[in-house]
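#onboarding

Welcome to the new folks! Below is a worked example of what a typical request in this channel looks like: someone posts a single protein sequence, and someone else replies with the predicted structure as tokens. Don't worry about understanding the tokens yet, we'll cover that in week two.

Example request:
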Amino acid sequence: MNKTGFVKNKRVLVTGGSGFIASHMVRRLLEEGAEVFITTKYNSIIDNVRLAALWDRIGVIEADLRNPDSLAQIKAVKPEIILHFGAYNHVGDSFTHVLESLNSNAVGTACLMEAYKEYERFVYIATSEVYGFQKSVPFVETMTPFPTSPYAVGKFGGELYARMQHHVYGLPVSVIRPFNAYGPYQSPRAIIAELIIKGLRGQLIQTTEGKQTRDFNYVTNLVDGILLAAASKECVGQVTNIGSGEEIAVRDLVLKIHELTGKKSKLEIGSLPNRPTEIWRMQAGNERAKKLLGWEPRVGFEEGLGRTVDWFRRYLDVFANDKSPLLSL
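Example response:
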């Protein structure tokens, strides 16, 4: 674990704190001695199960980022650092939830940034999806974004608003573009978690031809990078990729997970159509992160996959085992 020391004894607000990457961030912040607050739509352990073990150690603000009235609560907390993860976060489903995606990601960001400005550092968690259609890889921060989904458009809108706040008002805002995350606690709506769960259960796995590539990142690598960005003065006003720099074909990912989960599932690679807006190649150019932050991924792809498969084995014992005490409630 790379400790920065920057967050010790500081009040840190994590929006969307029970989300996948954000919940890992909350754990790290507590380990580093921060006073942690989160925003969530519902102040309930049941609705924020990723944080169940930490619930009594964090401050919970029940708020919808699209509702300026509820965001007024942030002023009472007076956070010194804001890590803005809260978002509508599914690429494919954003095509059928267009307004929710745009409002959550762009309007929600504007509402948050207008609600409170007295921070030492604001880190906007953007997405590699904003690059969208590009003619070459690796994706570098100087490229002109060409988002190809409502999700990515909304996230880019939020990013532009954050960058505007720095440019116009001189606020200490940084933007991070993380590439594809995976790890414990991820929803099976994401490809790696879905493949692992189906593989462990021996269920049919159907995919596209899998020619598209992605830059996959174990979640703690991203947490490292985001915390370093929060501590960095050089990162203020900058957009910084956090990605491994390794390009992996989805087909190879499927075969690797199939092997790690015991080859119990039948594979039908090529049985699903490609998305019409598919981004065919994604790879992070991470030289800026190395230069500004001294960041490099500490957990490699194979090690991260192994850890994730092991975690999901334990997860299924609790959540899908007929003898689990959870199912007897």
